[in-house]
Amino acid sequence: MIDALYIGASGMFAQQSSLETVANNLANMNTPAFKRSQAVFADMLYRESALSSPLADSKLQPVHLGLGTRISSIDKVFSQGELHETSAGLDVAISGDGFVEVQQLDGSPAYSRAGTLRVNEEGLLALANGLALNPPISVPPEAKGLQISRNGTVSVVMANDSEPMELGQIELHMFNSPAALQPRGDGLYLATELSGSAQPGKPGEEGRGVLAQGFLEGSNVSMADELVNLMMAQRAFEASSKVIQAADEMLAMSNNLRRN
Asked: Which candidate, 30, 124, 154, 191, has a CA 20 to 30 Å from the CA of 236?
């Protein structure tokens, strides 16, 4: 019965982490390009206990008792979010797979699907947080009518010209296992050993998505699904607490046997 206390506690701890995951999903339901997380559970080690009662013609077999559950991982689900038209020239959504690469302040790369772009203080095309796209695309101050094609070509019309001038190319990066990317916050992800290295390429090629100017990708959070997950986590948490309560009552009964 002592094991039941620890098993119930492990279930409560795991469901608490699951509840926090659901809460974070719901809190970011309106965050552009947010990708929902899901908790993955795994059973814990098994303890070999006393031998079971054998049948007449069978050998003794040990009994293996599980010791509870734990959170194995919290994975990102990179399904496509709905595209919303904004008509803003610097809003660009990724329709399909892929990430844009940005250079962080320490020079290391990070990856994002956020599509709210702007021109930063250095005159480079950047995310809303000011981190410049990589490879860098410099936008002249006198440029007007910035256009981003489906395949990532960025062009502008200069003040005294009528023909568009090409400035650069937005690349999309693919990963062997995007679910293993490390979320950093602010819509950024870092590559890990499990995700594999980034594989750059032009939008629309080799399974990469295409760009949609004037659109933003919404989150892939479904309120209905998250509320169902919320109720399931709550019920599982309640059941684990009932296990602890029942084990405590049985221990109390055992302690009172000698007194009676």
From this structure: 30
